[in-house]
Amino acid sequence: MIKKEQGINTLCTHAGELEDKEYKGAVSPLYMATSYAFEDVEVKRYPRYFNTPNQKALAKKLAMLEHGEDALIFGSGMAAVSTSLMAFVQKGDHVVFQKTLYGGTSNLIVEEFGKFGIEYSFTEDNSLESFEREIRENTKVIYIETPSNPLLTITDVEGIAGLAKKKQLVSMIDNTFASPVNQNPIDLGIDIVIHSATKYMGGHSDILAGAVIGSNEHINQIFQMAKNFGGSLSDYTVWLLERSIKTMGIRVKAQNENAQKVAEFLESQESVSKVYYPGLPSHPDHELAKKQMKGFGGMLSFELKDMDSSTFMKELKLIKPSMSLAGVESTILSPTKTSHALLTAEEREEQGIKDGLMRFSVGIEEAEDIIADLQQALEETKKDMLDIRI
Ligand SMILES: *Cc1c(COP(=O)(O)O)cnc(C)c1O
Fold it and tell me: Could you report the per-residue pLDDT of 47-57, keeping only the tens digit for each?
């Protein structure tokens, strides 16, 4: 029996395993049935009811990893986000959202909430006062994301959980960037933890999935809506995700270590004007991050000084310019040209997103090789820029 007190790598590998009673195989068997007996059974099973053997087993693993009681697995991170939010609000209710959120979450709020008569406000910044100021009579939920995308801001998780309890609100966190290896918000008092499992849980840039973890009561409330919205994940992908999570502990720890080295390297470079990484003492919330995180994660951002981001990305040989994040391979993107391309220059400026900003998802390659690639690309870009000027 695996106990939740056991180490993260043990939980990742074994928690929630399905026993192969028939053949004694070493891994969970896969049950692909979409049709199960309905008579003389304890549970009427159906994949959209989130209760097949593989769904249940993976939910148990996730609940143990996030120190919750139960979990649901969805077909995408956004299915987890939207269903979890909608389960706790109705027409006339209000939600307080952190200012900086994943783009898809912002789109969900701005494009859909109005249609359902759900009110919302965004905070001015990440301070507790800013959250408290937005709470109204009809507020039901506070929603945060930390570390945030793309500037790796840190929100005080315990502070938000306390504020929510004081005001009797449901607190939710998008814990994707941290992963359960680096941050366990339920231990800090948060009610509901959401993940895009497409990221660190999948970890190989080949699975689209989402997850939500919480108490039995909260998960049941989300389930009531989830079975109607129909966003469950197919059993084959559930099984693949269970396999991926076995290595999440060692992957994320390697990514933490690499990101720290890369951040320190970048900070020492003249052609880099700023590095955003919670593991650096120069990060404004380094102390808070140290308090609430077990590792600082594999995501960082940096600003190129007087260099064109497209030229820089073209000079990279190992690191791939690519959307999405958290795979075993290092990937990089320019928020100005991708996630924040639809904003005006002023809006980007207001959010602190400069043209030379690069968002970097650090992989598990050798740190020296990642650094060497960055170094040669910085040097080559400098030369390219000189050539253009001549
Ligand atoms: C990717 C991501 C999501 C959305 O997840 P999908 O699996 O793409 O639907 C939500 N939150 C964060 C922080 C993400 O990075």
Answer: 999 999 999 99
Taking the C-alpha atoms of residue 194 and residue 66, their distance in angstroms, rounded to an integer, is 10
**Mean pLDDT on 370-381:** 97
Specify the length of the chain in residues. Answer: 390
- Return the ∠ at Cα 353 (arms to 210 and 160), rounded to 5°: 50
CATH of the domain at 39: 3.40.640.10
pLDDT, tens digit (0-9, with 9 covering 90-100), for 305-335:
999 999 999 999 999 999 889 999 999 999 9
- Whose CA is closest to 126, among 157, 93, 168, 172? 157
Identify the domain containing residue 129 by its residue range.
8-245
CATH code, domain with 253: 3.90.1150.10
Residue nearest ligand 1's atom 7 by CA = 77
Alpha-carbon span 313 to 318, nearest angstrom:
10
Same domain, 291 and 304: yes
Using the CB atoms, write b or e for 288-314: b if 16+ within 10 Å. Answer: bbeebbbbbbbbbbbbbeebbbebbbe
- Compute the distance from residue 78 Cα to the ligand 1 centre, in Å: 6
Annotation says 384 is catalytic: no
**pTM greater than the 0.85 cutoff:** yes
145, 123 contact by CB (below 8 A): no
Whether 198 lines ligand 1, by a CB cut-off of 6 Å, is yes
Catalytic option among 45, 99, 199, 382: 199
**Are 232 and 212 within one domain?**
yes
Which residues have CB under 8 Å from 241's CB, separation 6+?
Answer: 58, 73, 197, 201, 202, 207, 209, 233
Pocket flag, ligand 1, residue 76 (CB < 6 Å)? yes
Which pair of tokens denotes residue 368? 């020296």
Last residue of a domain, one of 212, 245, 278: 245
Q: Is the CB of 237 under 6 A from ligand 1?
A: no
Q: What is the mean pLDDT of the chain?
A: 96
Instruction: State the distance from the centre of ligand 1 to the C-alpha of 176, rounded, in angstroms.
Output: 7
Distance CA 382, CA 307 (A): 7
Provide the number of structural domains found in the chain: 2
**pLDDT exceeds 70 at position 390:** no
Phi, psi (degrees; rounded to nearest 5) at 167 = -95, 5
pLDDT of residue 22: 96
Same domain, 84 and 169: yes
Distance CA 146, CA 352 (A): 17
